[in-house]
Design goal:
There is one protein chain. This protein is mostly helical. The protein has 6 helices and 3 strands, in the order ααβαβαβαα. Helix 4 links the parallel strand 2 and strand 3. The protein is globular, with a radius of gyration of 14 Å.
Length: 115
């Protein structure tokens, strides 16, 4: 888990080295908040989509933003899904559980990301 956008980008940039060591190179899905310190979520998303190695990585924007422009820009930049965080903790927990079920169990990742 990255604490800010810069840390998220550093983690993804280190994937080649991790893969060479036989470690898992990429996460199965990225849950991306738009309101990140240092580098905001939209910039992180643009960089993920701009790199050949990560362009197919599933990215779910999980944010409290109710701004239509944030949603439109997220999809324009290549988000796979846009979810508004529920305020209620139980609803948030349910949403995360459902996200995990779909993206980690049901979804079929691109072959080059599956290894």
């Amino acid at each position: 888990m990255a604490r800010d956008g810069a840390q998220a980008l550093e983690y993804l940039a280190g994937a080649t080295a991790r893969k060479a060591r036989g470690e898992v190179a990429y996460p199965q899905v990225v849950l991306l908040d738009l309101k990140l310190p240092k580098v905001d979520g939209l910039e992180v998303l643009a960089k993920i989509r701009g790199e050949e190695a990560t362009r197919l990585l599933p990215v779910v924007v999980l944010t409290s933003s109710r701004e239509e422009r944030d949603m439109v820009e997220s999809y324009r930049l290549g988000a796979n899904s846009y979810i508004r965080k529920p305020v209620d903790f139980n609803q948030f927990s349910d949403a995360i559980q459902n996200l995990g079920l779909y993206w980690l169990v049901l979804n079929e990742p691109p072959p080059e990301l599956a290894s």
